[in-house]
Specification:
binds fe (ii) ion, 8 strands, Ferrochelatase, globular, binds the ligand C=CC1=C(C)c2cc3[nH]c(cc4nc(cc5[nH]c(cc1n2)c(C)c5CCC(=O)O)C(CCC(=O)O)=C4C)c(C)c3C=C, about 45% helix, Rossmann fold, alpha/beta, 4-stranded parallel beta sheet
Length: about 350
């Protein structure tokens, strides 16, 4: 077996230095909305055994033979509705890059090297870990951009980073930032985003629906702490804004496949509201650090249509923190805390 990053110029490799890199990682993104790029992206994503916990032989047959014959077209059409045409990339990639750039600016000279990667698609975690090493970083802080821990998101980022280390002769020292479901800066940023979104409305919404990405119920029963993590976020957000469980209900979106996922399902919950006299709502998605297909299209387009179709009159979608100063201050705080002792 040969390892990457061997010495190349005949000189002795330097001893470990103290330069630090920070790698922000979010979920992923297709390179384009065309069939083959969508297929490549979905294939990588849905072949991850952290994401789909089924017998891989059966699942691969179903995925490669049936699901990936139709889904790339369908998903490509949805991505086209939200695509950043100016940069020719998905919003998730645009926001993740912007978060890294603004964090770099905020930290200033002499600070850690800030980079970003995607778990699926490009730039890959392995590519950016090697780039950090080339930049002289023998210490790396991995920062999965998921406020709440779950195995199909956080754990698989860690897996990919460890797989990259597995190939290296000279491995950096690695730290992993913890999830931040009720980090005071996250909650303060979310609360402010609610106030900002509601301020221009003639009348306040009757409910603020909190929609987290869903997860198969089986994963939670098998030990995934995701629900408890979501509870931490919503409990802190309700307290910050003075809402209760009725005025700020918790729901789960993006069900995929036929098995039961966490309930209540956002679409069913929201579609039932007008019949109960609730016709003005706001929706917030604090499971996402950046707007993406799940927030911009599934909530901003599909859910809005379903709510209006059911008789809803006004639905305000509250944006994710994206690259706002609240997001950057949160990341700065996490980085400062997690790098302590390394300076
Ligand atoms: C099939 C199983 C899936 C699980 C389990 C899952 C968990 C999960 N995902 C996120 C965050 C994101 N998911 C996104 C897109 C997306 N998710 C799935 C499936 C599962 N997710 C699919 C098939 C897709 C692609 C969209 C589509 O084709 O319909 C995204 C957005 C990516 C982007 O915009 O580029 C995010 C972010 C979390 C937080 C989570 C578990 C808690
Ligand atoms: Fe997902
Ligand atoms: Fe979705």
């Amino acid at each position: 077996m040969s390892f990457v990053n061997p010495p190349t110029d005949g000189t002795l490799p330097a001893a470990f230095g103290t330069r630090t890199g920070v790698l922000l990682v979010n979920l992923g993104t297709p390179d384009s909305t065309g069939y083959w790029d969508m297929r490549r992206y979905l294939s990588e994503f849905l072949s991850d055994r952290r994401v789909i916990e089924l017998c891989p032989f059966l699942w691969q047959g179903l995925l490669q033979g049936i699901i990936l014959s139709k889904r790339p077209q369908k998903s490509g059409a949805l991505y086209r509705r939200i695509w950043n045409t100016e940069r020719n990339e998905s919003p998730l990639r645009t926001y993740t890059r912007a978060q890294a750039e603004k964090l770099r600016e905020a930290l200033g000279a002499g600070a850690p090297v800030i980079d970003w990667a995607m778990r699926y698609g490009k730039p890959s975690i392995e590519e950016r870990m090697l780039a950090l090493q080339e930049a002289g970083c023998d210490r790396v802080l991995l920062l999965p951009l998921y406020p709440q821990y779950s195995a199909p998101t956080t754990a698989t980022v860690n897996d990919a980073a460890f797989r990259a280390l597995l190939k290296m002769r000279r491995q950096p020292v690695l730290r992993i930032a913890p999830p931040f479901p009720d980090h005071p800066r996250y909650i303060a940023g979310l609360a402010q985003s609610v106030r900002d979104a509601l301020a221009p409305l003639a009348e306040p919404p009757q409910k603020i629906v909190v929609s987290f990405h869903g997860l198969p119920l089986r994963y939670v029963k098998n030990g995934d702490p995701y629900v408890a993590e979501c509870e931490r976020t919503i409990t802190a957000l309700r307290a910050a804004l003075g809402y209760d469980a009725d005025s700020m209900p918790m729901t789960f979106q993006s069900r995929f496949g036929r098995e039961p996922w966490l309930e209540p399902y956002t679409d069913e919950f929201v579609s039932a509201l007008p019949a109960q006299g609730v016709t003005r709502i706001a929706v917030i998605t604090p499971g996402f650090m950046a707007d993406c297909i799940e927030t911009l299209d599934e909530i901003g387009n599909e859910l809005r249509e379903e709510f209006e179709h059911a008789g809803g009159q006004e639905m305000t979608v509250i944006p994710c923190l994206n690259d706002t100063s609240a997001a950057i201050e949160l990341l700065q705080d996490i980085v400062a805390t997690e790098l302590s002792g390394w300076r």
